[in-house]
Known about the structure:
Bound molecules: zinc ion
Amino acid sequence: MADYKIPKNFGGIMVLDASCTAHYLLKELFQNYPSLKEQKKCIKCNYDETISYPIIHAHLPTENLNFMLDILKSSYKENNLTCTNCNEILIKTVIASEHLIIEPILPTNTKKFNNNASLKLSEIPSTLHIFQKIYFLRGLISFIAPSSTHKDAVGHYVSFNFRDTNNNWERYDDLLNSVRNVRPSTVVHNCQIITYTL
Ligand SMILES: [Zn+2]
């Protein structure tokens, strides 16, 4: 897994090996297009470090998204640190891209891998005012865990996509023949990723 390659074929068509987690695939796909970059620069010595975050994490204090915006703001904020080389001021700047891929980590998620953490679609913030930008909700990825505990058992991913032109939610599941419209009151289990774009 460590040497994940994305081969580019004729016309730039990419064939992806999806026998991995959505989290892993997103991390690899967006390595060069991260949601956020944190740049740390010392005002005195040459220390200059950039950390890329393809996925940003929201460690939530409650079993809902009420504090997601506050948590993201405090986790990825610009501030001044102290340079470990020369003890001078290290300035941390945050560069946000056109998209935010967010992994919401609810208190139950930290306890076990397959959790029962649930989110109601209508309770997901439709906009995020953060990093001096306004981001719009686009959708989420939910994981359906395998019913068997066998080590080769595989789960299944479905996505829920938000159409902000008509406030409509659609459920995409490649085991079904068509896209389904779903109510905003739908509760999504095991929501692993939420995406926003400008
Ligand atoms: Zn320094």
